[in-house]
């Protein structure tokens, strides 16, 4: 149980989420996370917007075709980020600063080794990956080039995610926000320079992301090392096998969950690719907008995870329940905004990705997708918040069961409906049913108190 002295964290930027009003603490912690991910998605979208406008429909389709593969790499980064963040939050919430420091350094060392390996795999096998998803021949070369450059900079992306996860676990969601604003603006500026006057096409979009993410990673590492030094923590190991195992207990299921989602998206992309490059272009634009919304909702759930983990460490489960009720309204308001934008203004938003030569089929495809999935954003918000509690309490079995049900059902329904309807629309219809099933499972796990019983058992032991 943290003492008042332990709550004075040596650095005013670190925030203890186990004290004060639960709702206010969680919302004030979550808002910078929410804004951060909006900027992050802005520069992800900028690649496609600028490429589609100034390099053409094929360039947009090439970036879109490589997208589910890049998401597999991101899945590993995000899963490891979650593992580090949950474990560090728990120790920080309990006031165990030595173990907090050990987990931070262990995360950075292990992350560097893993990301270097994945970078090598990505560069060497980019062509094979693009073949696996049945990329149309007219966009294969550009898609492969984009993927090779993107994965070449994966080490920067991976370590950046780990560092921002560590900042969040210390209750500091503002530093990642500032870093993301700078990185996003830098990426967009480089996109404009490399794609428009230099006419580098998809390679320019990839190099812009590489450079912006690299700069953000280096700066984030420097700030984190200064932060840890300023905390003046005595003791703690540079690397601990026990700490790595503790992190892995959460990280491995999270990586599997994130990877499973990405693999499922690969199957979806494979099915979509079979309908031709115009359909791929429309889907690529729409899925970018959809991912923007879902990532924002997921970030609120991640904030719930950090809040849960700190209060688990402090043995304050009732704060978790109050925090969830408070942030639910915020999440549903966000869902309402995205629903109205995508349902009513889908075509103008999709036009940002396309030039005058883009086909009407691409536009109709994207619009249809958004109008089918956006009404169910309210449903998926509930799931992601309940998932946040399950993940933050390390109830990984329940968390994975709900997520895998969602994804498996989506892939199966997509295959069945697209064949039955002989239309790509059958794929779009798979999203609502899968989200609804996953949400019911996550809500049931939360309401039955699986996570709180687990907490009580651990405290007794």
Keywords summarizing the entry:
single chain; mainly alpha; 84% helix; disordered N terminus
Strand content: under 5%
Query: Ranges with pLDDT <50 over ≥5 residues?
Result: 1-12
Number of helices: 18
Fraction in helix: over 70%
The largest sheet is: none
Q: What letter string, H or E per element, gives the SSE order?
A: HHHHHHHHHHHHHHHHHH
Q: Which structural class best describes the helix and strand composition?
A: mainly alpha
Q: How far is the first residue's CA from the last residue's CA? A: 15 Å
Write a brief caption for the model.
The chain is 84% helix and 0% strand. The protein has helices spanning 4-7, 22-55, 57-94, 97-124, 126-132, 137-152, 154-169, 174-195, 201-230, 241-273, 277-313, 317-351, 360-373, 377-392, 396-421, 425-428, 430-447, 450-460. The longest helix has 38 residues, at 57-94.
Describe the structure.
- The protein is mainly alpha-helical.
- It is built from 18 helices and no strands.
- It has helices at residues 4-7, 22-55, 57-94, 97-124, 126-132, 137-152, 154-169, 174-195, 201-230, 241-273, 277-313, 317-351, 360-373, 377-392, 396-421, 425-428, 430-447, 450-460.
- Helix 11 (277-313) packs across helix 14.
